[in-house]
Specification:
Strand content: 25-35%
Shape: globular
Number of helices: 4
Oligomer: single chain
Structural class: alpha+beta
Strand order of the largest sheet: 9-10-1-6-5-4-7-8-11
Low-confidence stretches: 1-20, 33-50
Helix content: 10-25%
Length: 182
């Protein structure tokens, strides 16, 4: 019995946690046409037929994981890049190289996603806070939206209701702001 306790004591809590977490989440990005009634999706990078847009390979997004009970960040603004399969893969901020994901599903966590990725959102814990910061930046950085390209550069997509199924976290994005085309 004593030998068993000594063996268990030699294990770090980190290694035990890693074994209990299971498989990291696979990020799947859903794309819905701009002209549909619910949860329309777009990105500033890839425009098709005017205002109907899609997430294209190379587009990036940010993902936060927040502990519901404490409000603390579990994952702080991880950058994911979308591939042609519609999957997002975590990449290193500085090198842009794909790195292994360490995002796991937990009922006690809230998952927050937005696109395009912006390092300035580090430390945020809600979609509302991200949207407010972006809206404040529009007046300074994106004041001129007289062309489609300029509008696309100012776009912000948010995922308010990610869906967890098995080892997949499905992100469906909608516009944080509206488009008025005259």
């Amino acid at each position: 019995m004593l030998l068993t306790w000594i063996c268990l004591a030699s294990c770090t809590s980190d290694s035990l946690l890693d074994e209990q977490r299971g498989t990291p989440l696979e990020i799947q990005v859903d794309v819905v046409a701009y002209n549909q009634d619910v949860d329309d999706v777009s990105t500033r990078a890839s425009v098709n037929n005017g205002v109907i847009t899609t997430l294209a390979p190379g587009d990036d997004l940010g993902l936060f994981v927040v502990d519901k009970s404490s409000g603390e960040l579990v994952a702080n603004n991880y950058r994911y890049v979308v591939q042609k399969t519609g999957h997002g893969y975590r990449v290193d901020d500085t090198t842009g190289k794909v790195i292994s994901s360490d995002v796991y599903y937990n009922d006690n966590y809230t998952y927050i996603a937005y696109a395009p990725y912006n390092k300035d959102f580090d430390g945020y814990t809600s979609i509302d806070a991200i949207t407010t910061k972006h809206k404040n930046e529009i007046a300074k950085t994106y004041a001129n939206q007289s062309t489609q390209a300029q509008y696309n550069a100012a776009d912000l997509l948010v995922c308010k209701n990610p869906v967890h199924q098995g080892t997949t976290l499905r992100l469906t994005f909608s516009h944080a702001m509206s488009l008025l085309k005259i």
